[in-house]
Amino acid sequence: METTQTTHIFILSGQSNMAGRGGVYNGEWNKLVPPECQPNPRILRFSAESEWVEANVPLHADIDVTKVCGIGPGMIFANNYLPVCAAKTVVGLVPCAIGGTAIAEWEKGEKLYNDM
């Protein structure tokens, strides 16, 4: 990420819907990527290796590692958000959702909240 560009960062936290289960059937992702989820060089994700990389679905594949991830709302949101931003704005997505967790685990002071 360049230091002179404007970057809008969004945390993608929560449970399975945010982690993305779209296109997952019988424990496998069908790898179908709808147009609104296509990659864009102005959409980055913060990887599990703590690096900014170009975002591709499934966004949570290296985060929610005990589940099969597919399509979630992150890329759809980012692709629809970019047109209302200045021309050189970059969207940074920070995936940290974990399916099968309780909402109480995301409360301030709890482990998942602190891990974000």
UniProtKB/TrEMBL annotation:
It comes from Zostera marina. Keywords: Hydrolase. GO terms for biological process: carboxylic acid metabolic process. One of its GO terms (molecular function) is carboxylic ester hydrolase activity. Residues 7-116 form the Sialate O-acetylesterase domain. This is Sialate O-acetylesterase domain-containing protein. The lineage of its organism: Eukaryota, Viridiplantae, Streptophyta, Embryophyta, Tracheophyta. PANTHER family: 9-O-ACETYL-N-ACETYLNEURAMINIC ACID DEACETYLASE-RELATED, ESTERASE, PUTATIVE (DUF303)-RELATED.
